[in-house]
């Protein structure tokens, strides 16, 4: 690659990095400002670093409960999706009359606008008696985000050489034994990748969390942040501090597990 080509590549990467990081840096910086400082100097450094904004945000609303609810709903959805995706992907490895139609049906949810599902999901959740519960929210997330998890797991499992499964059948392994001992373990890197993306996606979801919950015992941290910005008052420093608290778990999860994501994607491309 020429020097001009390398310079162009680094320039593009720098632009995208700035677009990604600058809003986050501005959010963190603003969380240490006062209300007056935000309006007087919105893009400058704080004139007075208010570290107590985080303590005030935690004291104003039970963010720890909201975080627990977000993690609970996201974890439940992730476990259900990964397990169902592994089983569905393995079943579709065996060609049958409606396998192509089944594959298309399982991925059809990616094409559906989420807003169109809000009303029917609301009535279904009410009829099931799980409205305003973390379990109900987790089940809804499992249904909404299943196509994403299934696509990742299915794409990875399809790269497994068919000869491995054929050899296991010759050795006398049954349908379920092959799944538990061969298919699932070999697909674990793809399942881990799917789990990371699903956890982050479900944790950050707001629309259905706002519609399907009404009490502190079930509301998520994304809903809780809204309480700092009401119709008649807006405490921006505490709202920014609460937002940083809300996004911190997903950032930490991604930083810790980023190597696993890259390794899983690389392994899938080389199998």
Name a few traits of the molecule.
single chain; 271 residues; mainly alpha; MetI-like fold; 13 helices
Oligomer: single chain
CATH superfamily: MetI-like
Going by CATH, the architecture would be Orthogonal Bundle
Looking at the structure, the CATH topology is: MetI-like fold
Uncertain runs with pLDDT below 50, 5 residues or more?
A: none
How many helix segments? 13
CATH class: Mainly Alpha
Radius of gyration, Cα only, in angstroms?
A: 23 Å
Domains (count): 1
Largest sheet: none
Beta-strand residue fraction: under 5%
Distance, first to last CA:
28 Å
Overall outline: globular
Write a structural description.
By secondary structure, this protein is mainly α. The protein has a single domain, classed as Orthogonal Bundle (MetI-like fold). Helix content is 74%, strand content 0%. It is built from 13 helices and no strands. Helix 4 runs parallel beside helix 7 and helix 10 packs antiparallel against helix 13. The longest helix is centred in the C-terminal third of the chain and has 35 residues. The protein is globular and about 75 Å long. It starts with a helix and ends with a helix.
């Amino acid at each position: 690659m020429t020097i001009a080509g390398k310079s162009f590549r680094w320039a593009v990467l720098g632009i995208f990095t700035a677009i990604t990081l600058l809003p986050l840096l501005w959010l963190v910086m603003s969380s240490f400002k006062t209300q007056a400082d935000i309006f007087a100097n919105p893009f400058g450094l704080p004139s007075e670093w208010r570290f107590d904004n985080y303590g005030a945000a935690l004291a104003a609303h039970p963010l720890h409960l909201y975080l627990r609810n977000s993690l609970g709903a996201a974890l439940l959805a992730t476990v259900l999706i990964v397990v169902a995706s592994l089983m569905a992907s393995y079943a579709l490895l065996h060609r049958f009359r409606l396998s192509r139609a089944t594959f298309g049906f399982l991925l059809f949810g990616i094409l559906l606008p989420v807003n169109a599902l809000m009303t029917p999901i609301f009535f279904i959740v009410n009829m099931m008696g799980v409205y305003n519960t973390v379990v109900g929210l987790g089940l809804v997330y499992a249904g909404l985000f299943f196509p994403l998890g299934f696509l990742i797991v299915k794409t990875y499992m399809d790269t497994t050489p068919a000869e491995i499964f054929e050899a296991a059948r010759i050795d006398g392994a049954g349908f379920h034994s092959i799944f538990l001992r061969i298919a699932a373990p070999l697909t674990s890197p793809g399942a881990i990748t799917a789990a990371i993306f699903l956890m982050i996606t479900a944790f950050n979801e707001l629309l259905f969390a706002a519609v399907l919950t009404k009490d502190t015992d079930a509301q998520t941290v994304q809903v809780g942040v809204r309480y700092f910005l009401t119709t008649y008052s807006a405490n921006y420093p505490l709202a920014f501090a609460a937002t940083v608290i809300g996004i911190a778990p997903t950032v930490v999860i991604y930083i810790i597990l980023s190597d696993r994501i890259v390794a899983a994607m690389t392994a899938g491309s080389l199998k």
